[in-house]
Specification:
The complex is a heterodimer of chains A (306) and B (308).
Chain A lengths: L1 H13 L13 H28 L3 H5 L13 H8 L11 H31 L5 H11 L4 H14 L6 H25 L3 H9 L4 H9 L4 H17 L2 H6 L7 H9 L8 H22 L1 H11 L3
Chain B lengths: L1 H9 L14 H6 L1 H21 L16 H8 L1 H32 L6 H13 L2 H11 L6 H7 L16 H26 L3 H9 L4 H12 L1 H16 L3 H6 L11 H11 L3 H27 L6
Helix pairs in contact in B: 3-15, 4-15, 5-9, 5-12, 6-9, 7-9, 9-12, 12-15, 14-15
Classes of the chains: A mainly alpha (306), B mainly alpha (308).
Chain lengths: 306, 308
């Protein structure tokens, strides 16, 4: 086997693309590959399945004890209850409050952080000034500092500004902490745009903002989408900042979800808990399944240094 | 205007540093939020916390120096030591397993398998979910009375025991199962990108020399992917230090102290225990551990090149 391979290889290389590959479907290697992939796929997919199935069952059925069994009787009551009746402490108006809080946090944070990051990236790649690289370096290092280190100073800053415990304060925090990754993203993108384009615009007399709005913005829509994806998932999934900088009435969805599910009072309603969990995960999941390749590009941008 | 164009055209690039303050003014004004964030929040906040970790701050921060007292108390506290030990166990296993699983999955997907797109989607979707959601899902699956354990028992294996979340010596592994579920997809993606970047000729050469697939991966491909592994290590490492939300959702630090982690120690002393000094000292220790991860990486990555 190995022998004939070695013999054939040089000839095949010289001839360029080789002919049809020998068909070996059920080799031991293939079974190993597909078997391993299948087992891992189960590990990743089952929790979502369990969550969906549990949220559609009634409590009597859940107590019978097979979390993997599909519901015998589908009920949407847990979803309704999770949305509008689930209790945190004395408040019993469901997860809808957290959802709307999260939306009210998300929208302004998104607009502000993408606006700031795109201008940052533009300035850093095309209008460098003395020290601009230093600030960028600090920003990049800052992305690795554990948030706990900066938490209390931010509490003081917000309190001084009269924003502690308000949604505005939380929005500003999200803008600040979303800045490193998104600035990096835009900086690398703008740096890849041909210099001639920029020079031509300068010769025509266009300034900083004119070039940004008239030339750079229209041609960088994809990177805006990537940045938006990063921010939506990041901000929606945040727990630490939401729990630290807002009060019970303004808690974002993740914090309220945790309080609902991990509350010690009352009988545990697992179906309601799972419906609530699924509801909270629905926004980033939708983004993920709709955006596909762009999501991957977003996380790759986070992973690969600039 | 004409003058600045002329100088621009004469220079190697449009991005050469200007010498006058007012030139490039718009750019400087636009960068104000960035400069503020970098200097006030990142540098200022960090320095502030480090400085106040040497004070006796309790309910409120105050500048009464006590030297290393807070650190002595910290390292004398059983809760902190347990937190460190827990994080060490979790971190070690998480690091190894994330790399192994991430690379294995990427390598398998790179074998031109059918349904690669669908599999990748399945492997990566948990990464879109928050740690809170992750923790709550796995808390439910690992529920001893109604979850996985009861299903296996129901199938006839009566003595089957798998209840990590209520077992002090296993609880970190319960968290690990959830953490790996959430995070390995990202590493798989990075590894896959790395594998796709490897020249097809390498594989041809290995085949010509008659080297087996597995051996080629271990001897040739993995050494070639060193930068990808280093990036992954840094990502995993800095993620481990931050471990917090997952524990809050899945176990709340219990049973007892058995799943306490450093970040939780910081949060309870700062916001729950009115013990700010301890919180500052503990968070400074977290910072130190990140520095220990980052500095070797920075030297490896940027040491040779001239970078700003």
């Amino acid at each position: 086997m190995a022998n004939s391979d070695t013999m054939a290889a040089p000839a095949a290389l010289a001839a360029g693309p080789r002919g049809p590959k020998p068909k070996r479907r059920m080799t031991r290697g293939n079974i190993m590959v597909y078997g391993t992939l299948f087992i891992f796929a189960l590990y990743y997919a089952l929790p979502l399945y369990v969550m969906v199935v549990t949220s559609l069952k009634g409590m009597p059925e859940i107590r019978m004890g097979n979390i993997f069994a599909p519901p015998m009787e589908v009920t949407f009551e847990p979803w309704v209850k999770a949305w509008s009746q689930a209790c945190t402490g004395i408040n019993c108006d469901g997860l809808s409050r957290g959802f709307w809080n999260s939306v009210r946090i998300l929208i302004p944070s998104l607009i502000l952080s993408v606006a700031v990051a795109s201008v940052n990236g533009y300035a850093l790649s095309m209008w460098k000034f003395k020290g601009s690289e230093v600030f960028f370096g600090i920003l990049m290092i800052g992305a690795f500092i554990p948030y706990q280190v900066m938490l209390y100073p931010i509490v003081i800053l917000l309190r001084e500004a009269g924003l502690y415990g308000s949604l505005t304060g939380l929005v500003l925090v999200h803008v600040a902490f979303g800045m490193p990754i998104n600035t990096l993203l835009f900086r690398n993108y703008f740096a890849s745009i041909p210099e001639e384009l920029f020079k031509a615009a300068r010769v025509d007399g266009a300034g900083f903002w004119a070039i940004f709005f008239k030339i750079m913005l229209p041609m960088s829509l994809p990177i805006f989408v990537v940045s938006l994806i990063i921010q939506v998932t990041g901000i929606w999934n945040d727990f630490l900042f939401g729990a630290s900088f807002t009060g019970p009435d303004l808690y974002p969805m993740t914090v309220q979800l945790n309080n609902i599910v991990n509350s010690v009072q009352g009988v545990k309603e697992y179906n309601v808990n799972m419906a609530a969990t699924l509801l909270t995960g629905l926004v980033p999941l939708t983004i993920y399944f709709v955006s596909g390749k762009l999501f991957v590009r977003g996380i790759a941008a986070g992973a690969v240094k600039g | 205007m004409a003058l600045s164009e002329a100088t621009d055209a004469g220079q190697a690039g449009p991005t050469k540093k200007p010498t006058r303050i007012f030139k490039n003014m718009a750019s400087k004004i636009a960068a104000v939020p960035m400069v503020f964030t970098a200097l006030v929040i990142f540098v200022g906040g960090t320095v502030w916390t480090i400085v106040y970790s040497f004070t006796s701050s309790g309910l409120l921060p105050r500048l009464k120096w006590v030297g290393l007292d807070q650190y002595e108390r910290l390292w004398g506290s059983r809760k902190w030591l347990v937190s460190i030990e827990n994080l060490a166990i979790y971190g070690f296993c998480s690091l190894i397993l994330t790399l192994v699983i991430g690379f294995t999955l990427a390598a398998l997907l790179d074998r031109k398998v059918r349904g690669e797109g669908a599999l990748r989607t399945i492997f990566l979707y948990p990464f879109a979910l928050s740690f809170i959601v992750t923790g709550l899902i796995w808390q439910w699956i690992l529920n001893p009375e109604l979850g996985l354990q009861s299903v296996v028992r129901g199938m006839g294996w009566e003595s089957f025991t798998f209840d990590p979340l209520n077992n002090a010596s296993l609880v970190m592994f319960g968290l690990l199962i959830a953490g790996l579920w959430q995070g390995t997809g990202l590493i798989m993606c990075i590894m896959l990108a790395g594998l796709r970047g490897i020249d097809e000729d390498i594989w041809k050469a290995a085949r010509v020399d008659g080297i087996g697939t597995v051996k080629t991966y271990i001897r040739v491909i993995i050494p070639m992917m060193r930068p990808v592994f280093v990036t992954s290590l840094v990502l995993i490492g800095s993620g481990i230090v931050k471990l917090y939300d997952l524990v809050v959702a899945q176990t709340s630090g219990g049973p007892g102290l058995s799943s306490q982690v450093p970040a939780m120690y910081v949060m309870t002393s700062m916001f729950g225990g009115q013990n700010l000094g301890q919180g500052f000292a503990a968070s400074t220790m977290m910072l130190v551990s990140v520095v220990i991860i980052l500095v070797p990486w920075a030297i490896l990555e940027f040491g040779g090149k001239k970078r700003g």
